[in-house]
Amino acid sequence: MAIPPVVVSAARAGWNWQWQQLMQGLGPADSDGNYRRPAAAFSALPPLPTNAAEPGSHVLIVGRSCPWAHRAWLVWTLRQLQNSIELLVVEPDPEAGRWRFGTPFLGCSTLQELYRRSGATTDQRATVPVLVERSSGRVVLGESARLIELLNQWPAPAEAPDLAPAELSAGIEGWRELFQGAVNDGVYRCGFARNQSAYDRAESELFAALEQAEAALGTSGAGPWLCGNCLTLADVQLFPTLIRLELVYAPLFGVSRRPLWQLPALWHWRQRVFGLPGVADTCCDQAWRQDYFGALFPLHPSGIVPAGPALATLVQAPPPP
């Protein structure tokens, strides 16, 4: 028997109301429906710790699926900081909406406990990445954009790259500012938009930024990196979003207007970054898909993790146009 239209209309209205409530908990929005990322706790860039060079003096806490943590993990890897900073991976607890330690860390079972012990208020989210001083258990920094700057200042082996050379500072900052809002946060502004207009704005800004990067990389004599011959924090900041594009963001957040193979300079750039020593070990595609599709209930209520492309196919030569 066909369902009466009035029942369908009522169900749709009820579901939309519930969806709006759930989305507000997932990611707050302004009055126009634009997603607004909450401010991070422990966001002020501190001076370099006096004990930075001491082996094991600090711990970098990351989550495999988090792109913001991924950028810090990349800098830790590229600058070979394993001797002075321990890497600790936390696991998601989707039922409680928090990160948990596999085994207690400094007496804490969850990241939230560690944040509270360091002075975070109850309305501040406990997020990754976060840098912790082991001896005191104190959170040093919990904002990813500032954290990668601090890690780039950290004492490192002589052969480790400087990812922010002074002579390239203007170009690096220009790209980073563009990517932070339009790309890194832009995919979330698409996925968490509350209405069509908010989505359209975010989606247009996202692809405009990608096309700008494509044009810069595709210019004759440019590259191989965004700021020329040096790998920089600009490249680090873009990579975590683009390596997740086909696997997560396109199907879940609706950013599928142009597959990346239609931006060949960016495709080859992504391939180059992935091929750098240690970078592949930071890319956990199965965890990305499980955590995004399995945990973001308001966007994907079934919790079914769909099949997707193998990561290996995304770091090979693109198909012909």
What does this protein look like?
With 321 residues, the protein is an alpha+beta fold. The chain has 2 domains: 58-153, 3-Layer(aba) Sandwich (Glutaredoxin), CATH 3.40.30; 166-315, Glutathione S-transferase Yfyf (Class Pi), Chain A, domain 2 (Up-down Bundle), CATH 1.20.1050. The protein is built from 11 helices and 6 strands. α5 runs parallel beside α8 and α7 (196-218) crosses α10 (264-274). The longest helix is centred in the middle third of the chain and has 23 residues, at 196-218. The protein is globular.
Features:
alpha+beta, 2 domains, 6 strands, 43% helix, 321 residues, Glutathione S-transferase Yfyf (Class Pi), Chain A, domain 2
N/C terminus separation = 48 Å
Percentage of β-strand residues: 5-15%
Mean pLDDT across all residues, rounded?
92
Question: How many beta strands in the DSSP annotation?
Answer: 6
- CA-atom Rg in angstroms: 21 Å
Give the domain tally: 2
At the first level of CATH, the class of the largest domain is Mainly Alpha
Q: What is the string of helix and strand elements?
A: HEHEEEHEEHHHHHHHH
Low-confidence stretches: none
- Looking at the overall shape, the CATH architecture of the largest domain is Up-down Bundle
Count of alpha/pi helices: 11
Tell me about the largest β-sheet. Answer: 6 strands, mixed
According to CATH, the fold-level topology of the largest domain is Glutathione S-transferase Yfyf (Class Pi), Chain A, domain 2
What order do the strands of the largest sheet run in, or round the barrel if closed? 4-3-2-1-5-6
Q: Level of helix content?
A: 40-55%
Helix and strand content put the structural class at alpha+beta
Shape: globular
